[in-house]
Amino acid sequence: MPVLDPNPQNGQKKMLLVFGSFFAIFVIIAIVASIAAP
């Protein structure tokens, strides 16, 4: 089963959405931490 399927099923699309939102939150935390760092 490929990780990035051009036509993902419903469950795989939901898992990809959760992973994408987690990656976006991680990027936002990294940006806020780099700004708040002295």
Low-confidence stretches: none
Q: Quick one: biggest sheet?
A: none
**CA-based gyration radius:** 14 Å
Total number of strands: 0
The geometry reads as rod-shaped
- Strand/helix succession: H
Tell me, rounded to a whole number, the average pLDDT.
81
Q: Which class of secondary structure composition applies to the elements? A: mainly alpha
Instruction: Work out the helicity level.
Output: over 70%
Account of the 3D structure:
With 38 residues, this protein is mainly alpha-helical. Helix content is 71%, strand content 0%. The model has no long low-confidence stretch (mean pLDDT 81).
Give the SSE layout:
Elements lengths: L9 H27 L2
Which descriptors apply to this entry?
rod-shaped, 38 residues
Brief write-up:
The protein is mostly helical. It is built from one helix and no strands.
